[in-house]
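User: Could you write out the 3D structure of this protein bound to prephenic acid? I've included everything you need below.
Assistant: Certainly. Input first, then the structure.
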Amino acid sequence: MADKDKLLELREAIDQIDRQIVRLLGERFSLARRIGEIKRQSARAALDLSREKEILSRIIDLNAGVFPEESLKAIYGEIINTCRTAQQPMKVAYLGPEATFSHVAAINFFGQAADFVPLEAIMDVFEEVESGRCQFGVVPVENSIEGTVTSTLDAFSEYRLKICGEVYVPVAHDLINQTGRIEDIRKVISHPHALAQCRRWLRKHLPSVPTEEASSTAYAARWAAVDPSIAAIASSLAAKTYHLQTVAAHIEDFRGNTTRFLVIGKESPRPTGRDKTSLIISLADKPGALFATLQPFARRGINMTKIESRPVKGEPWRYLFFIDILGHIEEEIVREGIDEMSESCTHLEWLGSYPVGDLPR
Ligand SMILES: O=C(O)C(=O)C[C@]1(C(=O)O)C=C[C@@H](O)C=C1
């Protein structure tokens, strides 16, 4: 067969497969909608992360290895995210404006199909979820270079919300402006953390150009979108959102900069087999109090992944401890550990059990 005929034949086969895929996607969407009706009647949450995890690992097993695994995961993740919206419109609040890293985290977790609501402050995100105007919220909690986002931890003691998930987002900074030309830059604007993280690059490539602080990387991008003399340091999503060009990508001085975000909602998901549990505790003011509180986990071989103290507002020199351990509260060993821990604390609050997020590669 001539090359031209062969090409036509293969393309016809691909067109045939695409028709099937689109038809099957429609069928899958309708089935998800029917499942949604049953969930609504029995007052069950639409989002079922343990079922999603089960589906994803089955899909990866089904793959004969020809199709690249990461792409399969991304495509299937988006299919499930979209089918979820057939059950319930997913309204997700995040720390805005559009194209912040919180927005990137929200898209990574909920997919493109959700309805995203940018808000001005972390407290506003908690407020929106508690009021029920949004089902979920996405807030930053910790950066691998700058440390904890204290306003997120503090908000947990003011609102009765649960953690439903965590997302790790690699923080890659791009220098963006209207033309993509470095010669046009008279000023560089960004969030103080982003400016600090690109200090060496700026000194080397733009030594005489002044910098200015903005309240977020996305605000800086908005600014650059209206002023051709300004360049912003922001995410690649910001460049896309505000129609800007990339002068230089990945200008951060250290690679591996990652931010951990929390997904907050009204209830925590069921166990998935690889979960984390977050707690807030306060201690009696006596020697060995913290040691006694943590012993129940040590004895059971439960791994504590984080402990952080925050001052109690209005009570000088008293502290709350935020603790993350591996495991789900519905696992007996975790439940027992927490029960025993509660005997030696003056206050213990369960913030949620949720699937461990994937660290960026
Ligand atoms: O199996 C379910 O419970 C569904 O609702 C279907 C589905 C999916 O599309 O695969 C959608 C949403 C849930 O979070 C889990 C899975």
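DSSP finds twelve helices and 15 strands in the chain.
User: Perfect, thank you.
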